[in-house]
Design goal:
Elements lengths: L5 E6 L3 H16 L6 E7 L3 H11 L3 E3 L2 H7 L2 E4 L7 H9 L4 E4 L6 H13 L4 E4 L6 H11 L6 E9 L16 H4 L3 H17 L6 E9 L4 E5 L5 E6 L5 E8 L4 E7 L8 E8 L3 E5 L5 E5 L7 E4 L20 H18 L7 H20 L3 E2 L1
Parallel strand pairs: 1-2, 1-4, 2-3, 4-5, 5-6, 7-12
Antiparallel strand pairs: 7-13, 8-11, 8-17, 9-10, 11-12, 13-14, 14-15, 15-16
Helix pairs in contact: 1-9, 4-5, 5-10, 8-10
Length: 376
């Protein structure tokens, strides 16, 4: 382990680039035991926008070629669109550079398999950025399930609802192209729910045995706008706008998942419920400091504010009751990943775990295509 700061390279400087750069800046303030990092190289295609972002995010160098960035850094963050997840991540791992890649792991199962295999062959951490695992309330919920507080798990429900595409004139974006994104609401939103369910349940229900899926596209084409906001053309939407799926676990437990970009009135409604023989719990991302818990003998749910110093990560922040927000999940995630890099440890969720989520996404798509249940 070196005393020199870890030189970080980041591909992508928009939504996720902003979130992770903010997390890196917060680490030394609130996690003094985190490894020192240098925000070194920011990677993108538009040189002018890239330079502006690098200045805002605190990166000292820019590159338009991700291969050059990999050679210059100690750690590589792949935060680009889904279709650029595979090649840069595999190249970095083959060069011995640890990788944190945004979710879903890849646009296709074949791509995810390449990434999983590259990670298995590399002697460095490779993580898939499912940031909601690092919400204190989620970690508290996982501990309750592992301790048997809910008894035998019978049912898990996950939903992720947004409404940013309700307007049929909302402009086309890369997330609506199967070649670039892989899938729509399924991979963008459903991946979170499926991973979170697996994280919460642990070994309580075994693996996923089979799935039945339904995908729907409500608006078949959308406008491409020029710099003045005028319509240049219309492009096909080749991914799903919404999906639902039923999952059978090896234990006999059931799972129900849905996601939509057409859920009018829902901005970022990510909710998960787990029901067992002795109790239940509910979590909503829109109230991420709270966990609703029903224990055996109770007549209703108790709302627990998960902000005590004994709760995961909270001792690094504010006094009890001073709530955390969405951006703090990235700080926790970066802390765990960079600590694993510095100490030569393992990070979870790994590429192998990201691949398992991708297997489920792929099976849901195949179920919809075939009109029948698919075994995993």
């Amino acid at each position: 382990m070196t005393d020199e700061p870890l030189k970080i390279g980041v591909l992508g400087y928009r939504f996720m680039g902003n979130a992770h750069a903010n997390a890196m800046a917060r680490l030394p303030m609130f996690f003094p035991d985190a490894p020192d990092v240098e925000r070194h190289t920011l990677v993108g295609r538009d040189e002018e926008a890239l330079a502006e972002a690098a200045e805002r995010f605190g990166f000292s160098h820019t590159e338009t070629d991700w291969a050059d960035a990999i050679e210059a850094v100690d750690v590589f963050y792949n935060l680009g669109p889904n279709h650029v997840h595979v090649d840069p991540s595999v190249a970095a791992l083959e060069a011995g550079v640890p990788v944190l890649c945004e979710k879903p792991l890849a646009p296709t199962l074949e791509g995810a398999e390449r990434m999983r295999d590259a990670a298995a062959a590399a002697d460095v951490p490779a993580g898939c950025a499912f940031n909601y695992r690092f919400v204190p309330a989620i970690q508290h919920a996982r501990n309750l399930i592992a301790d048997g507080e809910l008894g035998e798990i019978r049912h898990v429900r996950g939903r992720y609802l947004q409404d940013w595409l309700v307007d049929p004139d909302a402009p086309w974006a890369w997330r609506m192209d199967a070649d670039l994104a892989g899938s729509g609401a399924l991979g963008d939103l459903g991946a979170h729910s499926i991973d979170l369910a697996g994280f919460l349940l642990g070994d309580a229900v075994g693996g996923i045995d089979s799935v039945s899926g339904h995908l729907e596209t409500f608006v078949e084409e959308r406008p491409v706008l020029d710099d003045d906001g005028d319509v240049e053309e219309y492009r096909d939407v080749t991914v799903d706008d919404a999906f639902s799926a039923q999952v059978a676990y090896e234990s006999g437990a059931m799972g129900t998942f849905e996601a939509s970009r057409f859920a009018t009135g829902h901005k970022n409604d990510h909710t998960v419920e787990v029901h067992g023989s002795k109790g239940s719990l509910r979590f909503s991302l829109e109230r991420l400091n709270e966990l609703e818990v029903l224990r055996e003998g109770d007549r209703g749910y108790e709302t627990v504010l998960v902000t005590d110093e004994s709760d995961p990560y909270v001792d690094h922040w504010w006094p009890p009751g001073h709530v955390l927000g969405w951006e703090h999940t990235f700080v926790h995630e970066n802390y765990e990943f960079l600590s694993a890099v510095a100490e030569g440890g393992e990070f979870s969720p790994s590429f192998a775990e990201g691949y398992e989520v991708q297997r489920t996404l792929d099976a849901i798509e195949r179920s919809d295509e075939r009109g029948e249940r698919v075994n995993l």
